[in-house]
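#lab-general

N.A. 3:47 PM
ok so I finally got the sequence cleaned up, no stray characters, all 257 residues accounted for. can someone with queue access submit it? mine expired

B.Y. 3:52 PM
send it over

N.A. 3:53 PM
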Amino acid sequence: MALLTGKRALVTGVANKRSIAWAIAKALSREGADLALTYQHERFRQNLEKLVPELPRPPVMLELDVADDASLTAMADGLSQHWDSLDILVHSVAFAKAEDLAGPFVETSRDGYALAQDVSAYSLVALSRSVLPLLKVAGGGAILTMTALGGERVMPTYNVMGVAKAALEMSVRYLAWELGADNIRVNAISAGPLRTLAAAGVKSAHSAMAELPERSPLRRNINQEDVGDAALFLLSDWSRNVTGNILFVDAGFHIMA
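B.Y. 4:20 PM
back already:
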């Protein structure tokens, strides 16, 4: 029997084949989980439709804008029409204005700061709340989000996204405390630099990828599958007493000065 046979997982944030969320979705599906995938608008739905034939079982597909409460409610209602419970939630969503990443942090716009916090950090809280009834029906479950080293240390050009990731990581801890009473675990993966759509707008990500083989303890870069397999651990019963943690998947780069 596969590790996640009989489990149901909602995965957000699949934009294309390089998405971390897609690597996680494939790992979960490989181990027997039934999937529900969300997309923000029609273009991303079309991207998803090209990818899903790679999965062993067809997923449920639901539209979702994490910055819109009505959309969150509609997504949860739609999900409940397919499933009466949920075991796993993967939050892999973040956004900041390009100009707020490229320019000096001190010049961050008020609305840009609020937008980055809303989409990249608060959405974890809102999304968790929207599916909480389904997680409770399952008798508990696991929630996972994605962060980065820029949430703990200064990464030039990560700017407002780094601040949002810091808020996201603290949200993980508060959610872990509150939801633990319902047997729901909440963790995050801090992934090393990867070639993804989100990283395309962060100049420092490209230099970090070049540094990893020289400066990381394991002397190599990581790939999306490395993150997917680590996520599999955190979302399975193998990590049944792990919650409120940030797991670094970066070849050890985060320990270096």
